[in-house]
Amino acid sequence: MTLSQAADVGAKGAVLAPRRGAGSGRLARIGQRAVGSPALIVGGAVVLLAVLVAVFGPSLAPYPYDKQDLLHANLPPLSPGHLLGTDQTGRDMLARLALGVRISLLVGFGVTAIAVAVGCVLGAIAGYYRGWADTVISGVVELVWGFPLILLAVIIAGSLGPGLRSAILALGIINWAGFARLMRGEVVSLREAEFVQAAKAVGVSDARVLWRHVLPNVVASTLVMASYYVALAIVTEAGLSFIGLGAQPPLPSLGVMIAEGRNYMLQNQWVTTIPGVAILLIVLGLNFLGDGLRDVLDPRLRRG
Amino acid sequence: MGAFLARRSVRMLVILLIASVAVFYGLRVAPGDPTGAVLSPMALESAREAYRERLGLNQPILTQYATYVRNLFQGNLGTSLVTGKPIGELLAIYGRNSLILGAAALLLTYAVGVPLGVLAAAKRGSWVDTLASGLAVIGLGMPNFWLALLLIVLFSSRLRWLPSAGCCSPKHLILPAIVLAAEGMAVTTRLMRSSMLEQLGQDYVRTHRAKGLAERVVVGSRAFHNALLPIISLAGLRVGWLIGYALIVETIFQWPGVGFLLVDSVIRRDYPVAQFFSMLLVLLVVFGNFLADIAYGLADPRVRHA
């Protein structure tokens, strides 16, 4: 065992759990808390269901999402052959919903994954090295932090033309800043911690210190924040698609489905209700998942 | 405090400069220059060239920016390509409508969110708390455009109490204001509740109770004042969110405000209008964040010296 490995082990023991046999003990306790957290179970189940629909739904759907059938338009849910009914042009709601959920989740998880990666790396650099890197990165964070997503997306749509692209770009430009802020704050305080100083003193490289000693301590808060951001991204995409600046018809983004159904709401409310409920459930599921993760992974963050 | 103000002001101006150049540049590089929106698709290249010349589009971008800013300061805001109306006139009409809607939504947000949050915290675990927290959770997840459609179906189509779209009577204001405020009410209720609970758990509250101060005073005055701090610090950010959501809400209800105008001008590629109102909203957001910073510095002296 080299010195740096010893420092790693020491750090883990010190930070993650004070007892011996730290690894399994910690996991077991997380498991216990997870069972006792209804928010985590309910939120996790809803999100898992949405992911399954997004992954398998579109290929299992009995009809193509854009196949019109005017003889069977405006069928209510539970009609024969159409589990969720059909819309005003007879397109199968189930097929459209499955694809809509897939688009929403792709945008939500995709954008957030990139935001986490970019934000964490930049935040870690800013917090660890301070100096001019910190000045520049924190300056950019200040610039985009708190800027309204929808306004930026509208401006980008003005530049590039409406489309899913402008929604994704706006989310990408803004959302990393939150993670950079979080990461920077954690790194600044951890940098001075004894176990990090100890690791540095025995010659552990910067990258390794960040990876082995700092990162494990910010995973919890990053995961919690990420689940809220996925929800935010999904709602924003849906809103932009609804007003015509996001995904364009006939692509059935959930926002587009609601927009297309709004003129027929009195004849057939299901066309707007089904995607609306889907968004509500996904967003609430993600929020619950975030709350649950917070309780389970980091009891210090638990709110009253 | 003076140095703090000066630092923050300089930072705001820098951010404003960068943001406005970015917006200006962003809208200039749009594919299909504005000649496509105004002139017929059959127009000759020479006509397009003349048009670009007239708008000054063939000059370097920084020169264009300087000209634009100079014109702004001289009160020359340009005219709409689609309707031909001067932008100053649009600003007066649409700006006023947006201010009315925004003020109504802000009022609703705090007039509902703050008392509801305090009540939920004071009666923790009671049905009031359950109801308030439940409503707040739903308000948080409910996409505002869908809420708008549901309210329109209920109050306009079925009950016929309120108009579904348009302007500008108080009746027209009710639905858009509720929808615009919905998420804010939910966030404020939750934040107020948790902030209040935190204060009620503090030692000073126990001391007040122990010395026999009426519960009404402990909750309503002592704890309440301290619990308000996070709400105040979030108020500046709310301005930004409000502007963002106004784009969607005004579009749904056809409320003739700045948000509606901006979305409409982007879709129609009426680009002097899009440019002016994007810049205006960006300015408002940056200024809102600046005010939040200052308010925070006033409330918490530690921030000033950071």
Structure description:
The complex is a heterodimer of chains A (304) and B (306). Chain A is built from 11 helices and no strands. By secondary structure, chain A is mostly helical. In chain A, helix 9 (206-242) packs antiparallel against helix 11 and helix 10 (254-261) packs antiparallel against helix 11 (270-297). The longest helix of chain A is centred in the middle third of the chain and has 37 residues, at 93-129. The two termini of chain A are 44 Å apart. Chain B is mainly alpha-helical. Chain B is 79% helix and 0% strand. Chain B has 13 helices and no strands. The longest helix of chain B has 38 residues, at 215-252. The model of chain B has no long low-confidence stretch (mean pLDDT 80). At the A-B interface, helix 6, helix 9 and helix 11 of A face helix 1, helix 6, helix 7, helix 8 and helix 10 of B.
User: SSE order of chain B, as H and E?
Assistant: HHHHHHHHHHHHH
Q: Helical proportion of chain A?
A: over 70%
Percentage of β-strand residues of chain B: under 5%
Number of helices of chain B: 13
Number of helices of chain A: 11
Biggest beta sheet summary of chain B: none
Overall mean pLDDT of chain A stands at 79
Mean of pLDDT of chain B: 80
Fraction in helix of chain B = over 70%
Name the features.
heterodimer, A: 304 residues, mainly alpha, 11 helices, elongated, disordered N terminus, B: 306 residues, 13 helices
Question: What is the topology?
Answer:
The complex is a heterodimer of chains A (304) and B (306).
Chain A: H1 3-15, H2 22-35, H3 38-60, H4 93-129, H5 131-144, H6 149-160, H7 164-191, H8 194-201, H9 206-242, H10 254-261, H11 270-297
Chain B: H1 2-28, H2 35-38, H3 45-55, H4 61-73, H5 87-122, H6 127-141, H7 144-158, H8 170-200, H9 203-210, H10 215-252, H11 258-268, H12 271-299, H13 301-304
Helix pairs in contact in B: 1-12, 5-6, 5-8, 5-10, 6-8, 7-8, 7-10, 8-10, 10-11, 10-12, 11-12
